Amino acid sequence: MGKQRDVIDAELSAWLLAQPVFFVASAPLSAAGHVNCSPKGLDAFRVLGPRQVAYIDIAGSGAETVAHLRENGRIVFMFCAFCGPPKIVRLHGSGRAVLPADEDWAALHAQLPAHDGTRSIIVADITRVSSSCGFGVPTFAQPQARSALPEWVQRKGEDGVREYQRRNNRQSIDGLPAIEID
């Protein structure tokens, strides 16, 4: 059943990278605020070390994770095996959003896949690595990446995406500051 690990070892890293989808959850400090859970894909996730992970944050409808990380840093990742042996892995930690203007952007960006529409890199220092059985998670045929988001970014172009972010990603649904676009 459940198991805790000290680090993300090579075997677990390979398993994490093989999963086509993962989920990211964060929450504001306010009890009245909204907890956020977002599915991610597009081969955007990487293990940077035994206790550090990152993913490319692509322009989207909201910026809850960035806002929550700016406020309190709390983050959890969840990976589920939708094919093969059942397994769920959670990575708890503290994270931050690295923006293109930040000093460590270039070094981090070089370790991650290139995606048009990238607005930030979410980096998390992992404090807890745990797995559970996943017996209740259904199996699915191997999913395929959707092309909708990359196509949307291409159609909008760099200026269009930036304008979209100005209108939609400046703050969270709870009014917390998120993406600063000049």
Explain the overall architecture:
The chain has 182 residues and is of the alpha+beta class. The chain has a single domain (3-168), classed as Roll (Pnp Oxidase, Chain A). 24% of the residues lie in helices and 32% in strands. The chain is built from four helices and eight strands, in the order E-H-E-E-E-E-H-E-E-H-E-H. The chain has helices at residues 10-18, 64-71, 105-109, 148-168; strands at 3-5, 22-26, 36-40, 45-49, 52-58, 74-80, 88-98, 118-132. Strands 1, 2, 3, 4, 5, 6, 7 and 8 form an eight-stranded antiparallel β-sheet that branches. The chain is globular and about 45 Å long. It starts with a strand and ends in a 14-residue tail after the last helix. The mean pLDDT is 94.
Name the CATH class. Mainly Beta
Q: Give average pLDDT, whole number.
A: 94
CATH-defined fold name: Pnp Oxidase, Chain A
| Category from helices, strands and their pairing | alpha+beta
Specify the biggest β-sheet. Answer: 8 strands, antiparallel
Q: What's the structural domain tally?
A: 1
Distance between the termini: 49 Å
State which percent range the strand residues make up.
Answer: 25-35%
| Total count of helical runs of at least 4 residues | 4
Radius of gyration from CA coordinates: 16 Å
User: Do you know the CATH architecture?
Assistant: Roll
General form: globular
